[in-house]
Amino acid sequence: MDVECPRVVCLCGSQRFQDLFGSERRRLTAQGVIVLGPEAVDGELTPSVRRALARLHLARIDLADEVRVVSEGGYVGTTTLREIAYARERGKTLSTMDPDLDL
Fold this sequence. Notes:
Strand content: 15-25%
Strand order of the largest sheet: 2-1-3-4
Order of helices and strands: EHEHEHE
């Protein structure tokens, strides 16, 4: 049985945009896209936990066909800028849902 592999999109952006992450995840999922992105975690975000989560997110980017930046008003933080650079280095397609953001 031949099954076409769905597109995989990794969402990146500031955690301040949780509502936008949720709506974009739902929109893409309804289109048959596999969506990867950061999730809220329980417990204290110690420096070592933050580093581990950052490595995990870079692995998500590695798995993705496309990296979609979730932002509003053109805001992109330093962590997201690093993720964009990482995605570019790996030849990933970049997109954004924010018309004020020029990638």
